Amino acid sequence: MKIIHTITDLKELLQPHRQKGKTIGFVPTMGALHEGHATLVRRCVAENDICVVSVFVNPTQFNNQEDLRLYPRTPEKDYALLERAGVDIVFAPSVEEMYPEPDTRIFDFGLLDKVMEGAFRPGHFNGVAQVVSKLFTSVEPHKAYFGEKDFQQLAIVREMVKQLALPVEIVGVPIVREQDGLAMSSRNQRLSVSQREHAPEIYRVLRESILLTGEQSPDQLVRFVTGAINNVPDLHVEYFGIVDGDSLQPVSTWQDSESIIGAIAVYCGDVRLIDNIRYR
User: Fold this and answer.
1) Which 3 state secondary structure label does DSSP give 130?
2) Which distant-in-sequence residues (6+ apart) come within 8 Å of 226 by Cβ?
3) I need a labelling partner for 73 at 20 to 30 A (CA). Which of 61, 170, 256, 259 fits?
């Protein structure tokens, strides 16, 4: 496994593989890697000749600077996990390498980034689009892999690829969970013992809500889920929305769409956790 820090070196390393017609797969990460990331990487390794993983904490997608400061950074542990998973190239650029000058591009995603995460984290998805488009230009992958835990991010990346006409296939990979159901996240490292005990209630309530779809409307279910989670110590719901899986706009009946997702953000103490569940 090679660890590369500049775009020039990355392109030089990939060029011979490209000339031989090898397929290049890519997994963008912000480090602090866990089994969820490993699942993405193993899928990438299995489906491509060359697997590239980026490790870069992108400052432009943090609207909360304290969150950026506290984001866990574990490069040596990350590299060990990636080598075990069979990665060929790790791209670990500096902020200066990725942003030699400020990126002033503003993307228009219509209503996609105005709801859920976008409503509470202004500018977040514009920052995601900036860095992912830069990474795609640097790696030029055939396929790129993203976790479905960040459901809205996946929708945004797909729309960005469409708008920029980038020749990359976006592959969504199902959520990976701990044994108790908590969605794997780098932020889980910041939970106290008590918070870690209570956090799995998020998924437990979401699963329970599936059983109620026959007797409750989406609006009623939003109130049920929000109330049930807010009753758990340490947990406070920032938002819960039941939305169309493509447009991400709220649905009012279960017949409104063939694809319906429940997406949630919950503060567990001061740690913000997200999750989602498919209703249909």
Assistant:
1) helix
2) 237, 240
3) 170
Q: Say what the pLDDT of residue 67 is.
A: 83
Helix (H, G, I), strand (E, B) or coil at 78: helix
CA dist 200 and 198 (Å) reads 6
Q: How many residues in total does the chain contain?
A: 280
Q: Residue 140 is which amino acid?
A: E
User: CB–CB of 203/273 below 8 Å?
Assistant: no
- The answer to whether the beta carbons of residues 143 and 168 sit under 8 Å apart is yes
Let me know if 198 is a catalytic residue: no
Q: Helices marked H in the chain — which ranges?
A: 7-19, 35-47, 65-70, 75-85, 95-98, 117-120, 124-139, 151-164, 193-198, 201-210, 218-230
* pTM exceeds 0.70 for this model: yes
Which candidate in 5, 17, 34, 37 is catalytic? 37
Per residue in 137-163, is it b (16+ CB within 10 Å) or e — as a string? ebbbbbbbbbbbbbbbbbbbbebbbee
Find the helix or strand (DSSP H, E) in which 99 lies: none
Q: Are 176 and 40 in contact (CB under 8 A)?
A: no
Rg of the chain on CA atoms, in Å: 19
